């Protein structure tokens, strides 16, 4: 199972961000990802970082679709790939109503329709072709004149049944959050795979995004997760995923414990059908160092 790492971009300088990336590459991580969370612009930052970590795939997890037209996002992703020479995993997602309506001022009406149309418009432009898409939510008529040998791979942040079906049919796969072995094996993987097969696409990528801490005090670390991420359990799609795994809340979904425990949990994810692991280290600095070192060896 391929293992990537999500850099911690919140409240850090760009020098710190670059150091994180170099450290991850030196440890052996072959893919480095950035989120788009109101801090550094993920694609721009990766373009600046990418030349200092040659041979590493660069990924976004995830860029909200509503704030960037498909032609604009395709130009950014293909520029990133061309300027760094690195493969690009373009993670996108519809985000959430409070962000789309409260921060962007756009309507969040029928987000799955928007996602489907967005991916249809994005696909030809990433492949170097001209888009001529006229949908209910957007129009994309144009092209991006940047030569690329291979188009960036597109994965969607998805956990609901309909978003997973759209991801399987129109993208290369999906990234999940809070999903454990049971929900992956019984829901995420079958839903994605069936949709991809029905669309005549290859077997989809299943990227399991996990908060992970190698620690001797997992209880304290789960308390921190509850304080930081606990409200996510109130989001219907996340609540459904947590319920599928029998989790009362998000702290139950994290991987926290000693090296043996963490590795056993990771192997369960792989057995459930995850093709890739995206690591989000958390905890004290020394615990994060242990986490990074352990999982880089997978």
From TrEMBL:
Signal peptide limits:
none
What sequence ranges are listed for the domain Luciferase-like?
A: 13-275
Enzyme Commission number(s): 1.-.-.-
Keywords (alphabetical) are: Oxidoreductase
Question: What name appears for this protein in its UniProt entry?
Answer: TIGR03564 family F420-dependent LLM class oxidoreductase
Q: Which GO molecular function, any one, fits this protein according to its record?
A: oxidoreductase activity
Organism encoding this protein: Amycolatopsis samaneae
Instruction: Report the top EC class in one word.
Output: oxidoreductase
User: SUPFAM superfamilies from the xrefs?
Assistant: Bacterial luciferase-like
